[in-house]
Each structure stands twice: as C-alpha cells, then as structure tokens.
Amino acid sequence: xxxxxxxxxxxxxxxxxxxxxxxxxxxxxxxxxxxxxxxxxxxxxxxxxxxxxxxxxxxxxxxxxxxxxxxxxxxxxxxxxxxxxxxxxxxxxxxxxxxxxxxxxxxxxxxxxxxxxxxxxxxxxxxxxxxxxxxxxxxxxxxxxxxxxxxxxxxxxxxxxxxxxxxxxxxxxxxxxxxxxxxxxxxxxxxxxxxxxxxxxxxxxxxxx
Amino acid sequence: xxxxxxxxxxxxxxxxxxxxxxxxxxxxxxxxxxxxxxxxxxxxxxxxxxxxxxxxxxxxxxxxxxxxxxxxxxxxxxxxxxxxxxxxxxxxxxxxxxxxxxxxxxxxxxxxxxxxxxxxxxxxxxxxxxxxxxxxxxxxxxxxxxxxxxxxxxxxxxxxxxxxxxxxxxxxxxxxxxxxxxxxxxxxxxxxxxxxxxxxxxxxxxxxx
Lengths: 209, 209
Description:
homodimer, alpha+beta, Glutaredoxin, Glutathione S-transferase Yfyf (Class Pi), Chain A, domain 2, four-stranded mixed sheet, 4 strands, 49% helix, globular
C-alpha cells in the first residue's frame, strides 16, 4: 500500500491517524501542497481531484476520500475496529462522521478558504479554481462555532464520541477541532466534557501525527 | 422501525429508495417540510437537526443522516448488499457516496437554497437561519455542471456507478441528478453512457418513489 499524505494537512490527517490507530506501517508519500504539487500533471495522474488523502492498494486501486480510505482499511484490517463493533455502533459512527464532516470540517474549510490571502481563487480544493466568497467565510466561522457548541451534547456521559470506545468518530471530531484552530475557533471554555475528551485524545500516540 | 420521510424531499429519497431496494416494509411518517413541520417543537424533539431522513429503530435509537440510516439498514438487513460485496467494492462505494454528496448533492443545494425566493434565510437546512448568498448559488450551479460532466468517466464501461451491480452509489447519483433538475441542470446531452444509465435506473421500482 501507498498513502499519499501531506503532513500539515487536516484532510489527510484523518487517514494518518486511522493508520496509526490500526498499528499499520504504510509507505507514505509526502505531497507538497504548499508548493502546489497536488496541481501538477504528475499528481493529477494519481488523483484527478488533486487532493490528499489518497490510498493506493497493492493491486493499484486508489481511494481518494477519507471515507473510501477508511472503509478499505477497516475491512482489510479489522482489528482494532474503528468503525463500530456492532450494528448500532456502526450506524452511530456513520451518523457522527457525516455530521462532523458537513457541520464541522466543511464549515471550517469555508471559513478559512474564502478569506485567507494565500487561497485566492482556491475557495474549494480540487482541479478547478473558484473565487473566494467573503460572506461564506463569515458563515463558515459562525457554523463552526455552532458545531463546537454541539459537542458537549453529543459526548454526553460517554468517554468517546460514539460511546465507550475510541472510534473513527473521535478522529473525525479531533482533526476537525485541530483544523478549527486555523481560524481561531476553540472548544468553548465552559464545554468541560469536550475539553476533557480533547485532552484525552491528544495524549494518544496517533494524535501527535 | 419508523422512517420519517417527506415524499417530495431528495434528502430522504436516498433512504426511501434504499428501503425499497432492500424490499423492506417500514412504517413511514410524512413530515410536511413545506409547512415547516420540521421546525416544530414536536419534530425538534425527534430530530434536533430538523431534517429528514430520520430512521428510528425498534429500540428507539434514531439516525439522522442518510449515512447513518444506510449503515444501519445494510448491517441489519444484509440482502441484497447495497454497500459492497467485497472489500474493494465497499471502499469504492464509500468513495463515490462521499464524492457525490460533496461535489454533487451539496453543490445543487447551494445552487438552490441560496437563491430560491421561498428559501430566504434558509440557505442551510437545520434549526438555525442563515442568509442566502447569491454568489454561492452561482458557484453551486457551476459545480453541479462540473459534477454532471464527471459521471461519464466514473461510469466508464460499467453498467452501474461502482461496477457491475446496483449499489447505494447508484442511489446517491440518481437522487442527486433528480435534485439537480430543480435548478435545471441536466445530464449533458452528449454524456451517452450516463443518460443510458439514468434511464435504466429510472425503470427500477424504487426509482418511482
């Protein structure tokens, strides 16, 4: 297997952490997003969507989304299970992953990419240029704050986002919170459980990656 | 089980079709989105995100995203498999679902919700109001057109989106194309394989729902 990563990118950090939690040793190829390597002809031939993560299997098949990469790894290397151990947990994790992606990760991305000076015309990742929409940046920031506030209720009395064991839902939320620091939106100070959870996850080996 | 649906909504059509393809008979509760029933206190207590689909299990657990509902149904009622029959197919379908959701469904939603007169301040589904951003509508329409163009390549020589059998990836793309007709963006005329595929899927019983 080969994992196309960018060590500073939250998009591929989802897969980086997942691989580490599975205890796998995967050949990793660094893609230099800062110098637009992802937009080069060479990388386009690997992933026409010009994004990381990309996971390439031994057979040469490539998956170009976190969800594709995660599903492959979960099925191929079932232990430890990160996408649920029973039906209910699997569905709950799927719910949380989707919710966090849409209400969290994309909200942060909207907030960041529609205003950052270095991202002019790069409001959306991928091969095509799209102009920044400053109003969308404001909305993304507002939505990120709402997402942050919601975590306390999702966590409830559980130790982890989807219940009593670590899962991909924790990776999803953890990476999204890290990404939100780029636009300076932290976990609310009074969200005690969320802050305690974040600290606990931060101490995992995979979280240092 | 209970399925909270709105018979005219593409968001819950994903689950409607999936249930039909599984051959299940599920108690369905119609939520009148047009008259804002989803924003009522009563529905909020069922789903605080104020959206359909919602799938409620026998045990009373509720899943509030297509991905959560699909995962539950796939695990609980494995036949016929709609989310992949082997590792590679599972991962490919996960990739396609995510891609279609982000590049297709959300692009259409942006196009529609940020301009439609009846959706003032409802640029995003959910409990909170967000002002329309007309520029985002234009961008959503442009992105929808790009998505439509991409289908021919995804389909390739296959009969179905993820290979040689019908799957949730077909539902994802089919419903998204139906939704795109709301903003009058059709499959490109010269996309022969996509048009033929669309016609084939349209003939399935589940597609009439």
